[in-house]
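Structure ticket #2291
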Amino acid sequence: MTEKKHIFSILVDNQPGVLSRIAGLFSGRGYNIESLCVAETADPLISRITMVTTGDSQIIEQIKKQLFKLINVIKVHDLSDTDCVRRELILIKVSAKPGNRAEILRIADIFRAKIVDVSTEHYTIEVTGNEEKLKAIQVLLKPIGIMEIARTGNIALLRESK
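Resolution: structure written out below.
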């Protein structure tokens, strides 16, 4: 069986300890969480956990069953093979020597990125998009001098049927 990435959208009660129990379920069974994003939904009593993990179909089925057993879990969706909107956010701090500043601005413009912080030594760039877009901008900025990177990991919502 082949392993592939799976994105889970998990609606849970917005209560202390829920995330800890879900993370404990993964670590207790030796499953890796590749990325994790948690935030309140439009209803302040419910949070959405967007989690990326890798596994074969048997492991993914086991994860789903175990998640449904947890008391504060309301819904679990595996968005991997569905029509959904996925995005990540990345902040990239890049060295901004005078000779590179125009090039950095051109790259940011091409990727519809925003310069969110400027100093005499660096620019901090905010980029949103899919994984391929984020990798592409990193490849272009690497020769200029990436100093630091912070990423959110995936967030995703199902598309509504038309």
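Closing remark: Helices lie at 18-28, 57-69, 101-110, 131-141.
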